[in-house]
What we know:
The complex is a heterodimer of chains A (265) and B (267). Chain A is mainly alpha-helical. In chain A, 82% of the residues lie in helices and 0% in strands. Chain A starts with a helix and ends in a 15-residue tail after the last helix. The mean pLDDT of chain B is 92. With 267 residues, chain B is α/β, with parallel strands linked by helices. Chain B has helices at 49-57, 96-100, 102-106, 111-124, 140-152, 170-187, 198-204, 240-266; strands at residues 4-16, 22-34, 38-42, 64-69, 72-73, 81-84, 158-162, 190-194, 207-211, 219-224. The N and C termini of chain B lie far apart (46 Å). Chains A and B meet through helix 8 and helix 9 of A and strand 6 and helix 3 of B. Bound molecules: adenosine-5'-triphosphate and magnesium ion (MG). The site of adenosine-5'-triphosphate has 13 residues of chain B, from helix 1.
Amino acid sequence: xxxxxxxxxxxxxxxxxxxxxxxxxxxxxxxxxxxxxxxxxxxxxxxxxxxxxxxxxxxxxxxxxxxxxxxxxxxxxxxxxxxxxxxxxxxxxxxxxxxxxxxxxxxxxxxxxxxxxxxxxxxxxxxxxxxxxxxxxxxxxxxxxxxxxxxxxxxxxxxxxxxxxxxxxxxxxxxxxxxxxxxxxxxxxxxxxxxxxxxxxxxxxxxxxxxxxxxxxxxxxxxxxxxxxxxxxxxxxxxxxxxxxxxxxxxxxxxxxxxxxxxxx
Amino acid sequence: xxxxxxxxxxxxxxxxxxxxxxxxxxxxxxxxxxxxxxxxxxxxxxxxxxxxxxxxxxxxxxxxxxxxxxxxxxxxxxxxxxxxxxxxxxxxxxxxxxxxxxxxxxxxxxxxxxxxxxxxxxxxxxxxxxxxxxxxxxxxxxxxxxxxxxxxxxxxxxxxxxxxxxxxxxxxxxxxxxxxxxxxxxxxxxxxxxxxxxxxxxxxxxxxxxxxxxxxxxxxxxxxxxxxxxxxxxxxxxxxxxxxxxxxxxxxxxxxxxxxxxxxxxx
Lengths: 265, 267
Ligand SMILES: Nc1ncnc2c1ncn2[C@@H]1O[C@H](COP(=O)(O)OP(=O)(O)OP(=O)(O)O)[C@@H](O)[C@H]1O
Ligand SMILES: [Mg+2]
């Protein structure tokens, strides 16, 4: 552990330096007119805009909408993904029956569904939630399915011999064993849930961060677009950090893992 | 006539290889294991020792034949048996004490009492101070000891053990064998013990069963070992009668081991 912290402190410094360096380049580039301000805006302007959005409080309603949609699609998607993953992993026949349809459904580019969902569910939050769910569901479903299938049969047999019922097997062996897989899917799907609902908002909504970005774009306000992106990125990072902590606690039985390599969102 | 705890009658088990070939692992296995006795099964690697235990545990259906447990035909999991697997079978997400109490927990026993009892077992198998460790933090021998406590805490009538000490060094092994004998003597449980180490089998058992080389492995010898108990595992191997048993059984086992070598060379 101490070895890891020793190494991660300088790495954090390097990471901050890299970010600061790139931002400064951008700032300088625009200030000295190597880059066109109209197309690229400027980090200081973006920061100012973000600050203003929070100061005036105008961002909160949009942020709340986006987060509600993302949370709903995440929650519904994860729940459905885990349940279906378990069901199909435990029932070979059902898995074989549904296999081609799941492949087809997963191969569809989700973006093309957005207009259809708009028609079906209207301009409100549910069309975005539906879009988010289609993304989250498949990621979680495939990982859960895989995770349950990869359970060590000896551990299952051992629990059975110790008297486990089918339900107890799920609770004591299958879920903990699949949790590693489910968590790796959570990291990815949180990011994708947010992206999906923002795309949904972008294509047709009256509220949300995606809507503000679309509005800014409509009047060629690059600063507004970047401000929206900045806020989204910050949110994804924050939520990802939360998941990381939860994961570290729930998977504390695993030998030291290298989580630094895993991307968040 | 004493009570028979496990009765195997004409057991056979076939497997189908990925290519579709049928492979008979064991056949014509008939064996009575008396209540409270310690029976070892020895045989060349791959002859079907684990297969026999798996069937007795109810985890694997026999292709032919029947299994009776205390007179009742076995259907599904053998509820009167505990099984210490050849492989690591502790649940990695549970602590040592969590693993040990699992059997009680699954049977719906009171949580507090289970925990207390499990902690006693932690001490009993020499894992004091490791109750809250996770399996990955233990050595191989310590994991085996936890698995031992996990199997014995539920007070089974029958304990199935599959090469529990195969991977351990001589000293740890001797200690664990001693612990097994002590547990067994205290509890009066029936033990079916698989090993490929003949010395270990003789030192521990009332009876040693020799299996032939596969395919179609079957019982080729049964030897009662009436060395006096309690046995001193450190000195027993130098006793003259131990040597007699060893030579007698080895002459049988040797043939099978050689056969299994030849067959694996052909393959
Ligand atoms: N699930 C299975 N599918 C196919 N073949 C199997 C299966 N289990 C066992 N076998 C075969 O049956 C034979 C006996 O296997 P088993 O594991 O019982 O041997 P063993 O005597 O326990 O060997 P070892 O001493 O190496 O543990 C082997 O040839 C093995 O390949
Ligand atoms: Mg075996």
